[in-house]
Amino acid sequence: MSYVVAITGGIGSGKTTIADTFQKNHRIDIVDADIVAREVVEPNSIGLQKIINHFGPSILLENGYLNRSELRQRIFSQPNEKEWLNNLLHPLIREEMQHQLSLATSEYVLLVVPLLVENQLQYLANRTLVVDVLEQTQINRTVNRDKVTIKQVKAILASQASREQRLAIADDVIRNDQQFCDLNSEIALLHDKYLLLSQPSINKEN
């Protein structure tokens, strides 16, 4: 399996943009937890069938895909249902992420996991890159991008790990506030570092 670098960061931090830059500029493979989470509940998947068995066929849209809005409503005020869903999906997502990581062919592979700290998934990676921004930057970006209220964004932030918790597990950090704009150069330096670390003869403690 390739050397794995996990990328994480709070909502609006720009972690997807940074991962895409690694891929575009340096041809590095990406495994994205958000994409995997959608894949494990696609039509005809084991995950979706178990959700149908549990919640009934009304949990589907007319095209046979999962009605995510309906599912969120079902689990919103029912902790037991949310726990059931997490117990079903988290192992499926982890298994599929590990499968996709095993298929990577680049010198190292990026694992993009927004909730890396919250779900304690650091063990899946050799190294962790945290995309760090000011909270106000997160709020501004998310309000503009998702057309939601500041109150909604603050509720999301409150449900996620704090900046301090993410930074505590970081091996590398990219500051992605607007004033730090030379991301290509910073990513190029990290790319060179990860190429070295991915070599079997390199001391991984460095």
From TrEMBL:
Keyword Transferase found: yes
Cellular-component GO terms for this entry: cytoplasm
EC number(s) given by UniProt: 2.7.1.24
Amino acids binding ATP: 12-17
Gene Ontology biological process: coenzyme A biosynthetic process
Pathway it works in: Cofactor biosynthesis; coenzyme A biosynthesis; CoA from (R)-pantothenate: step 5/5
InterPro entries, per the entry: Depp_CoAkinase (IPR001977), P-loop_NTPase (IPR027417)
Molecular function terms, GO-annotated: ATP binding; dephospho-CoA kinase activity
Function description: Catalyzes the phosphorylation of the 3'-hydroxyl group of dephosphocoenzyme A to form coenzyme A.
HAMAP family named among the record's database cross-references: Dephospho_CoA_kinase
Family: Belongs to the CoaE family.
Name of the molecule in the record: Dephospho-CoA kinase
The organism of origin for this protein: Aliivibrio wodanis
Gene from which the chain derives: coaE
